[in-house]
Amino acid sequence: MAGIRPARPSASFRSFFSYKVFASALFTLLFLAALSAFLSSPSPPSRYSPTSALRGRFLASDPLRARVDLIYRQAADHSVLVTAYAAYARRLKLDSSRQLRVFEGLTDSLSDLSLRLEGTVFDDEDALRAIEKEAKDRVKFARQLVAESKEAFDTQIKIQKLRDTIFAVREQLHRAKKLGALAGSIAAGSTPKSLHCLAMRLMEERIAHPETYRHAAAAALADPELYHYAIFSDNVIAVSVVVNSAIKNAREPWKHVFHVLTDPMYLAAMQVWFVRRPPTGGAKVEVRSVAEFRFLNASYSPVVRMLEGGRRDLSVLHYLRFYLPQMFPKLRRIVLLEDDVVVQKDLAGLWSVDLDGMVNGAVETCFGGFKRYNRYLNFSNPLVQNRFSSRACAWAYGVNVFDLDAWRREKCTEQFHEYQILNEDGTLWDQASVLPAGLATFYTTTKPLDKTWHVLGLGYNPSISLDEIQNAAVVHFDGNMKPWLDVALNQYKHLWTKYVDSEMDFLQLCNFGL
After folding, report:
1. Cβ neighbours of residue 66 under 8 Å, at least 6 residues apart?
2. If pLDDT is split at 50, 70 and 90, which confidence band does 13 have?
3. What is the DSSP secondary-structure string of 390-416?
4. N or C: which end of the chain has fewer CB within 10 A?
5. Where does CATH 3.90.550.10 sit in the chain?
6. CATH classification of 194-509 is 3.90.550.10, yes or no?
7. What is the three-state SS of 285-341?
8. pLDDT tens figures, 27-58
9. DSSP summary character for residue 57
């Protein structure tokens, strides 16, 4: 049978094989479609374990599942809300209150309910209804508690925010006051252009016409029967206001003598002013320089010795008031006036005030616990503690009546020298101010004057009553807001400007804004 070709398969066999392949392919496609449908079906929430999902597979399409989700979300949301209010309570420092304990208990209860919902599969309606009722009761209680507490918590939060705002504003005010005090001290210590211009023009006049002012400095007037005033200043216009106001309010102006003591640099300017604008009513003005007092040398005065040693925070002109008996050896009584005062009444009555043998007559400034000696002296120093009382009442410079005979008897200048030597390092008091030295020197020799003689505060206090000002014999612009500066208090400035000699031609040339 070699060479015989094999027979071809029959048609029936080929048909059977094609049918088998087709059936296999169809079965494979159906299997893949079923598997894809199974895998793409929604899986249960992550809070159900696979085992519990299989045990509760009949709930996959049941409304119980939606109810469980709703209960869980409500419990979780209200737990977060109550936790937030508990945090607010802690922030507002309500840890010991009953309300905080209720918040914390309710938070724990809602958290426990959420955990039970996560770990439990509900197979019937009754079990779900029981936990649903429990959840609704707790959510209802949470809503009531939040509603009752919302207003109180909102108010507490607003109060806390308001306190924070007040604290911030107070800090800003404190900084503004410090900056204002610094600016005021700079303004008070500087010389305005107008004052500098006035001094320069008066000096120019003195140089241009020496013969006119050659005998301007008259011999010292030392009649003890007259009313003598001492004014220490290098401010020409301020001194002129003090003199003019005292003369215009004096009943007997011819009895008043004003001793103006100034720095050598301003001596010529002072002389020219009072020669060109002499006092009226027969009053007398004597202008002298600090350099004329030969006893003020380093061997006698500790102040001069400190200045020659390089101290720049001291001024001989300010400390000259401690040498009044040496400067006026023939006088028995003298009144010291500061250059920032305005006289409103006759001061002749100061010469009839009984000082009871005391050296200094001054208006006291203490009230309550304020402006006592402990404000001006360093009572942490044993020397100060042993010699002075911290509760002693302080007094003010500005209007001071000095009995020069009592001064000489009590040797007050020698006491001043002793204290200056002890305070050379500044440990007893601040040497930049002359008042502490006066408080120490005249500690037991000061007689209080009636307060109407001297009203202070017009240079810093805007709240002084009008009656107090009107009844005052002298008003004092102590402080940084001097009346000749732009920072002066407007409600008081007219008290000073009405005594300015506006007819003086040099004032107009120097642009004084009066």
Report:
1. none
2. very low
3. TTPBPB-SSEEEEEHHHHHHHTHHHHH
4. N
5. 194-509
6. yes
7. EEEEEHHHCCCCCCCCCHHHHHHHCCCCCCCHHHHHHHHHHHHCCCCCEEEEECCCE
8. 566 555 554 554 444 444 444 444 444 344 44
9. G
